[in-house]
Specification:
alpha+beta, 4 helices, 5 strands, 34% helix
């Protein structure tokens, strides 16, 4: 599953995503991580793999223990990434 999701994440590089509270951001893929436009955070492919255990997400609470939970939510629950998988 992570390989399919990671391919979608890579394919959406540079596109605008929206956080749960409305903040917009983009990201750049750098190897096995992404660099976020609105913060100095980067999110690794392994972090996305861990977050996939909790999808579908209704909010950020299930992924609060992971780095950048609002960004994880925004990316993983976006229809471009999610498609019809969950």
């Amino acid at each position: 599953m992570i390989e399919t999701v990671w391919k979608r994440i890579k394919g959406c590089e540079g596109q605008v995503f929206k956080q749960i509270r409305g903040g917009e951001f983009t990201y750049k893929v750098k190897g096995n991580s992404i660099e976020l436009s609105r913060t100095n955070y980067s999110i690794s492919k392994n972090t996305f793999k861990e977050a996939l255990k909790y999808v579908p997400l209704e909010n950020t609470v299930p992924v609060q223990h992971l780095p950048a939970p609002s960004y994880l939510f925004a990316i993983l629950m976006d229809k471009r990434i999610r498609q019809n998988d969950w």
